[in-house]
Every structure is written in C-alpha cells, then in structure tokens.
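Take a sample.
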Amino acid sequence: MAEFKHIKGGDAEKRFAKSRVHGVTREYMTYLETLKSEGGVGVLKPGRGENLTTLRNRVRRSASLLEMQIKTQRDGDELLIKVQK
C-alpha cells in the first residue's frame, strides 16, 4: 500500500518550485503583480541567450495564469508591458 504524508507549507513550495520553468513563470507573475500595484507599465530587456519573443510568451502566459489583461509592444531591443485595468 502507498505511504501517505503531509508536507508543511514552506517545504511544499520548495518541492513544487523545483522545475525551472515553474520558477521562471513565478518570477514573471510576481513582476506582473508588482506592475499592477505600482501603475501598470514596465520594460523588459532580454538576458543573454534570450530574445523578445521568448519574453513576450512568458509574460503572456504568466498574465493568463493571473487572469490579467496586458498589452505588449516591442521597442527596439526592449519589451514594453502595460497592465490593462
């Protein structure tokens, strides 16, 4: 028979956040929540090995998970993000 255990909150978060993709999405979600509370406009610049399409996809996926409406626009080598009210 299977062994059942309970995991405390902090430990559970660490175990669920082990996935790199999940961790990255969580960072973007936190950024979007901050944007929403601070006025709604932000700028992202790709890191080494990233491109604007990747950033846009990550931001849109995170916004979708938060059920948040955003608008993105490319500006040179930066991505502008506006949180819709």
